[in-house]
Structure formats: C-alpha cells, structure tokens
Design goal:
CATH superfamily: Alpha/Beta hydrolase fold, catalytic domain
Strand content: 15-25%
Largest sheet: 8 strands, mixed
Shape: globular
CATH architecture: 3-Layer(aba) Sandwich
Number of helices: 7
Strand order of the largest sheet: 1-2-4-3-9-10-11-12
Mean pLDDT: 94
CATH class: Alpha Beta
Number of domains: 1
CATH topology: Rossmann fold
Distance between the termini: 19 Å
Length: 231
C-alpha cells in the first residue's frame, strides 16, 4: 500500500498525518502512533521517520504549543541553552501534558483510528512529554517509546497508581555519548520506570543526541512485535 500523506484536519494541535500503509482487517480500525518532537523543532522533524515505522499505523506528528524563544521553533515547555548547560521551566509542562492528553483521542477520532491503540513516542523534550503523559494518563496510551529524554519530576510525583500502569509496554532508548541530555538522564528514566509494573525495556546505543539506524531498527521491531500481540 502506498504512502498517503493526508491533509491535516483542524485539531487542537498543529500536526502532519500519514495514513496507514497497510489496510486493517474488515471492521477494524488502525492503530495510531503520535510523534512528539524536541525543543526548538516542529512537526516535520520526526515525521521523516514515518515511512520506516510499522505500516499498520496511522502516524500523526504534533507540534508543541509554545514558541522556543532562542530558535523560533516549537516547544512543550521553555528551555534555555547556556554555555554551562540548559535550564528548563517545567512549570509549563503540565499544560502541554494536558494538551497532549486532549489531542490523543481527538486525533484518533479524526482519522478513524482505534482509541484503545494510541501509541506515543517522542525525542528529547518530546520524550519527556511522552513519559509525563504515559505516567499520568495511562488510560489514553497503549504503549510508549521515549527516545533520548529525561524524567520531569512532576511526572513521577503525580504518576498513576501501579494497577493503572501495570503491563503498559514501554521501550526507552538513550545514547551513551549524548551531549545534550547525558546518559545519566536515560539511566534515571530506567531506574524509575523499572520500579513500577510496566512492561519495560531499556537500551543504550553508541550514539549522541540522535536517532541512529540501530536504535530506529530496534524501535520499529519492538513496536511491530507489540502490535502483533495487541491486535
């Protein structure tokens, strides 16, 4: 089935959308995969990965609701890059988390996807928001793939109870040589998420702050295997 880039509908977050490249079985609706970009980027960034991902997905790449002052790109919460590192105002993250939580079922309805099969993945700041949404709204998320992210303290402090998180599939990846969010950020995610009853997988790669061929291959394989088990 050919790639079909659809005309985005006027939803609460600006976005791009690719239709499923493999038609669902008769009477069934396709799963939805929502992509969340990093700070200073936009919805076009991760959309370049869409053709590599499982063809059963309708893929939506959303734009953060804020403007990043330094770059003019989009953001989920303010971040400033300085010579000594980055500073973040995470008080804005809860509002963006709420925007994502509202957008997920809205996008599923708009594009005819299965609302019980909404998967979420994000890179860098988008990974932080992926984790935040999963931990606080597990009823909305079938599974998640945070890439090269960090754990926002409020996401952990306000997480749902263990029963709501039990068995949710999560695959997080991080680069050993990440110069933006060091490997310690990935390992903090690992240590925290391993302590709750998720179906959790964590892997490290010899890469920087990026999506490598190896990490993308593992992510696509993991997503396909989890879809096989769920559908």
């Amino acid at each position: 089935m050919s790639v079909e880039i659809l005309t985005p509908k006027p939803l609460s977050l600006k976005h791009l959308v690719q239709g499923a490249r493999q038609a669902p079985s008769a009477g069934e609706r396709p799963p939805l995969l929502v992509l969340l970009h990093g700070v200073g980027s936009n919805e076009y960034d991760l959309f370049g990965l869409a053709s590599y991902l499982d063809p059963r997905f309708v893929i939506v790449s959303a734009r953060g609701p804020l403007v990043h002052a330094q770059s003019g790109g989009a953001a989920w919460y303010p971040v400033t890059f300085t010579p000594t590192g980055l500073t973040a105002d995470e008080s804005f993250a809860v509002g963006s988390r709420d925007s994502i939580a509202a957008f997920l079922p809205e996008a599923a309805e708009a594009y005819g996807a299965d609302p019980s099969q909404i998967w979420l993945t994000g890179f860098s700041q988008g990974a932080a928001m992926t984790i935040y949404t999963l931990l606080t709204h597990p009823d909305l998320v079938a599974g998640a793939v945070p890439m090269s992210g960090r754990l926002i303290p409020a996401a952990w402090e306000n997480r749902a109870d263990d029963d709501a998180l039990r068995g949710k599939p999560v695959f997080s990846v991080h680069g050993l040589y990440d110069q933006v969010l060091p490997i310690s950020s990935g390992r903090e995610i690992r240590d925290r998420l391993q302590s709750v009853p998720l179906d959790y997988t964590y892997r490290e790669y010899p890469m920087g702050h990026e999506v490598s061929n190896a990490s993308l291959s593992d992510i696509t394989g993991w997503l396909s295997a989890k879809l096989d088990a769920a559908l």
